[in-house]
Write a structure and sequence with these properties.
By secondary structure, the chain is mostly helical. It has one domain. The strands form 2 sheets. A two-stranded antiparallel ribbon has the order 1-2. Helix 3 runs parallel beside helix 9 and helix 6 crosses helix 21.
């Protein structure tokens, strides 16, 4: 019987035989999980009222906490794991009380609704308040309808525009070619699978769940306790320790200034276990090239500049090279971070588009886009490469995939509605809106590929301030480049007015709102594709996930503006222009409760990219030149890898998408931690192959989920009781007493 026959399978769990135990071992990361060991839910019962209700509640709660914490710290999280666990806990009990079936597929729908409902909050901690601070809009109350339209337009365009690419990014052949693991989505799927399998007492599943819980507990405990002694528990500033002994002198200070220390982040270590040595090595190599070679050279040649971060004479050489304030986010006086951003983004964009071109035959054969189907039919005699039949055999959800009628009309309506609403609501011209939407789509493709190779957008590091306390930094298990996506869209939109002496306010409004469209669109596109990965592994029909995403996006497009309106009513300083001069003042009587680190960055980039007084580009000339060279190298490596076919040499070519990503991430420790995870997994596999096959994914899932939940707990404890820092804890082992 097919998984999706109308006759629901209600038999109990299969007998636990050695064959069943072996089937439960998931060894091919690009194939769905083996047969689930509990009840299979029939399709028509998946998108239930209870699933929507529980998912929406989880998503709304996370949306509210995201805006609150995002305005304070600059980071947000998704609700995928929360929706998975809460959905299982509540609906499993519900099903027992009311004698209703509840399986992993419906659990998947709860998680999907939760993820979509929690989305789009990042625009409300960055672009939208920055627009108000520059005096480009009226008030959130008066602009409420306009903001809802902007949010819905970005969300639905991002969702609808990438929906037809599900097969390309998710199914076995193309996912393997692009190494799209989607680590956080994989962890979510593993969590759902293990919870349901353990619930019916499958021996291997119970053991895997125990391993996951042990890893989860250890990671969460480490993350929660870390603020008490950051420099001893969480971060090992080895060069700081060496400096304290008087050895290495200026070299130790320089290494510390450029961020070369160990961070024992379980999430990145777990992510490294999943993505393998090629991706992890590429990330590390990109960090070395950016933050140990290029950055120091730029500073030595006065092409980029840092700022002192300590007045202590013993730390006189300690510098910050990651500022994105207005002083350092410009072409004339850039920080290394601002300079490196453009080569990274350009390389990622070039590599992503080249990969798409190299996979043209896969797109044509697997896409449900009417034009491509017509092309394939008309030119059916072409002798282009074909996808082997066996690649289709394990794609169980083909009979319930997303048909053209489910997205094409909606996409046309979304485009038309966006053009009309942006013109009427904000005075932006048709051509500029079309450009913004085009950027949103192209950059969404880049973000999805980076997400798939390194992790889903569970955490969005949106320009948190230099030297932010570690307990308030994002638990960055994932490296979705939404920051880079937004920044490049701002620069491109600003360039369309570079020689224009027209209305500055209109240029800045287009810059910020166009960037917000791209950011929101890429956010929802990545969430959608990540959810499709979860469903693919669990063999959930994609149509039901798609419907759940549509519902969740509608909820988020209302909820996020409502929460933002409530916060700005209670704390007007969030959108007041005075915050521009007082944001860093601790003695000002009007000091705002919310530092708004992401707001400051968006505002700085908007001002820099729309300043047409000199007619100069906002991108440093040397950065642009290096960006072209770096992108050309990336394209050549991608072409070479695709031309090599099945050659073993491919395994040793760097992943240029991830190397470019490292240029946009001011955090070398993440690359180190990912490499530690990948090498640890490789050693484990070489010594205990059977144990590795059984438990490696469970360990990775526990590590990533544990840090994520621990990070949320840390944020709450910091706000409520002043957890860490001067309130609770010690700065022993930190450079200049700061971590």
């Amino acid at each position: 019987m097919s998984h999706y026959d109308e006759e629901q399978t209600l038999a109990g769990p299969s007998p636990i035989t050695p064959e069943v135990e072996q089937a439960a071992q998931w060894t091919d990361k690009f194939a769905p999980f083996p047969e689930m060991l509990d009840h299979i839910t029939k399709p028509r019962s998946l998108v239930t009222f209870r699933a929507i209700l529980i998912g929406a509640i989880c998503g709304v709660l996370v949306n509210g906490s995201n805006i609150y914490l995002g305005l304070k710290t600059g980071w947000t999280s998704t609700a995928n794991l929360l929706g998975s666990v809460v959905g299982f806990t509540i609906l499993k009990k519900w099903s027992q009380v009311h004698n209703h079936s509840f399986g992993p597929h419906e659990n998947n729908i709860v998680q999907t609704v939760a993820t979509a409902s929690a989305g789009m909050s990042n625009a409300f901690i960055s672009a939208i308040p920055a627009t108000y601070q520059l005096g480009l809009l009226s008030t959130p109350s008066k602009d409420f309808v306009r903001i809802v339209l902007l949010t819905a337009a970005g969300g639905y365009f991002g969702l609808l525009s990438v929906a037809p690419l599900r097969k390309f990014f998710i199914e076995k052949k193309s996912a393997r070619d692009l190494n799209l693991i989607f680590p956080s989505s994989t962890v979510t799927a593993l969590t759902i699978r293990n919870m349901h399998s353990a619930a019916v007492h499958a021996a291997s599943a119970v053991q895997q769940m125990k391993v996951t819980l042990w890893a989860f507990s250890g990671a969460a405990g480490l993350r929660i306790s870390s603020p008490l002694a950051v420099g001893l528990i969480w971060e090992w500033h080895i060069f700081t320790w060496i400096h304290a002994t008087g050895l290495l002198g200026d070299f130790a200070i320089a290494a510390e200034s450029w961020g070369w220390f160990l961070e024992w982040t379980p999430a990145m270590i777990g992510s490294g276990m999943l993505v393998g040595t090629n991706v992890a090595s590429s990330f590390f190599a990109g960090s070395v090239l950016a933050w140990a070679v290029t950055g120091p050279y730029l500073v030595s040649q006065n092409m980029a500049f840092g700022s002192p971060i300590s007045s202590d004479s013993s730390w006189s050489g300690l510098m910050s090279y990651t500022s994105m304030s207005a002083e350092y986010a410009n072409a004339k006086h850039p920080s290394p971070r601002y300079w490196l951003l453009w080569p990274g983004v350009t390389c990622m964009l070039a590599v992503a588009l080249t990969e798409l071109l190299c996979q043209w035959y896969t797109i044509i054969q697997r896409s449900d886009v009417p034009f491509l189907r017509l092309l394939k039919s008309a030119w059916g005699q072409w002798s282009y490469p074909s996808v082997p039949d066996e690649e289709h055999e394990d794609i169980t959800q083909n009979n319930s995939d997303i048909a053209s009628w489910m997205w094409a009309p909606g996409l046309l309506v979304a485009i038309a509605a966006t053009i009309l609403s942006m013109k009427l609501a904000f005075g932006i011209s048709l051509l500029k809106i079309v450009l913004a939407l085009g950027l949103s789509f192209v950059l969404s493709i880049v973000a999805i590929q980076a997400t798939g190779a390194t992790g889903e957008s569970s955490w969005f590091p949106l320009f948190y301030p230099d030297m932010l306390p570690t307990n308030l930094r994002p638990s960055n298990s994932d490296t979705t480049p939404l920051t880079a996506v937004a920044t490049i869209s701002q620069i491109v939109l600003g360039a369309t007015h570079s020689a224009d002496s027209g209305n500055l306010a209109l240029r800045q409004r287009l810059n910020l709102l166009g960037g917000a469209l791209a950011n929101i669109g890429a956010n929802q596109a990545c969430d959608l594709m990540g959810d499709f990965r979860v469903g693919y592994l669990l063999q959930t029909p994609a149509r039901f996930q798609y419907i759940a995403q549509l519902i969740g996006t509608f909820i988020a497009s209302i909820v996020a503006p409502v929460i933002f309106k409530l916060f700005t009513t209670a704390y007007p300083c969030i959108i007041e222009s005075e915050i521009r001069s007082n944001i860093d003042k601790t003695t000002d009587q009007h000091r705002c409760e919310f530092s708004g680190p992401s707001i400051a960055t968006w505002r700085a980039v908007a001002v820099a990219s729309t300043n047409s007084a000199s007619g100069q580009s906002a991108i440093p000339a040397t950065s642009g030149e290096f960006a072209v060279l770096f992108a050309a190298v990336g394209v050549m490596i991608v072409l070479g890898r695709n031309l090599l076919g099945i050659s073993p040499v491919k395994a040793y070519l760097p992943n240029m998408m991830i190397m470019g990503l490292a240029f946009t991430m001011p955090s070398p420790p993440y690359g180190i931690a990912m490499l530690i995870g990948a090498l640890g997994a490789k050693i484990w596999k070489s010594r205990e192959k059977r144990a590795f096959a059984s438990y490696s994914s469970a360990v990775a899932a526990g590590l990533m989920a544990g840090e994520g939940i621990g990070g949320i707990v840390n944020g709450v404890l910091t706000i409520v009781v002043g957890w860490g820092g001067d309130g609770w804890g010690t700065a022993l082992g930190c450079p200049a007493g700061r971590c």
